[in-house]
Amino acid sequence: DARVTQTPRHKVTEMGQEVTMRCQPILGHNTVFWYRQTMMQGLELLAYFRNRAPLDDSGMPKDRFSAEMPDATLATLKIQPSEPRDSAVYFCASGLVIGGTEAFFGQGTRLTVV
Amino acid sequence: DQQVKQNSPSLSVQEGRISILNCDYTNSMFDYFLWYKKYPAEGPTFLISISSIKDKNEDGRFTVFLNKSAKHLSLHIVPSQPGDSAVYFCAASRRNKYIFGTGTRLKVLA
After folding, report:
1. Contact B88, B103 (CB under 8 A)
2. What is the DSSP string of B61-88?
3. A91 has a chain B CB within 8 A of its CB
C-alpha cells in the first residue's frame, strides 16, 4: 500500500528551537510538495521539488525555513529558529504530476511552538 | 494574493440533497483543476479533476463544472451523504504546480 509518510506526526517545541520535519514520498514519484495548513490561508504552498531539484520555494520565509531533498526517498523541511506563528499542520505530498494527475498527501505534522 | 478562492467557509446540507461547493480563480493560465476532501487529522485525498479544455467531468456522485469565462468551478455532490462531511479544497495547476484554496467545510445533516 503505497503512501506518503511524514514524521513526526506531532511536535511541540519551544520558541527558538530548530524543527525538522521529514517526508518519504511514494516510490517513483517525481514531484514533492510542502504545504502548510492555516485557518486563514488554507493549504499554502511552501516549496516543491521535481526530480529532487527545487523548483519554487517562494512561499517560504527564507530567513528561517529551508527545504531539501537529499535523496529520492527523503524530503526535509527545517525551521530555525522556530516561532509561535509557525504553529500549523505541515503536509508533504508527492506525485507523478504529468497532465494534471493528482498529488498524494501524507498525514501531516502538527507543529506547536510555545 | 490568493489565486484560488473559496468564498464560503462552511455549508450545511440535508442528507440526500445536492451539495454545491464553489471555487474562483484569477489566473487564466491554469491548465487543470482538482478537488480534494479532508477529514480531521488526515491528509487531503483526491476526489476529482478537470482539464481546462473541458467544462464537465463526472465520477459517480461527484461532478465538477468549469466555467472558464467566469473563472469559476464548482463541485456537485448528489446525493449528499453524512460521510461526505469534511473540508473540501479546490486546487488549480499550472505547469504541475498546485495552488489550493482556503477550503469549505461541508456538513451533511442526517
Report:
1. yes
2. TEEEEEETTTTEEEEEESS--GGG-EEE
3. yes
Nearest to B103 among A42, A55, A97 (CB): A42
How does pLDDT run across A46-60, given as a tens digit for each residue? 999 999 999 988 889
- pLDDT, one tens digit per residue, over B37-73 is 999 999 999 999 999 999 999 999 999 999 999 999 9
Cα B88 from chain centre: 6
Q: Measured between CB atoms, does B44 come within 8 Å of chain A?
A: yes
Report chain A's mean pLDDT, rounded to a whole number.
93
Residue entry with cell 506563528? A85
* Per-residue pLDDT at B70: 97
Whether A102 and chain B come into contact, CB under 8 Å, resolves to yes
Give the length of chain A. 114
In this prediction, residue A1 carries a pLDDT of 66
| Interchain CB distance below 8 Å, B93 and A45 | no
Q: Which residue has the cell 467544462?
A: B55
Strand order in A65-71's β-sheet? A5-7, A19-24, A74-79, A65-71
pLDDT at residue A23 above 70?
yes
Give the bridge partners for B65, in sequence order: B56, B74
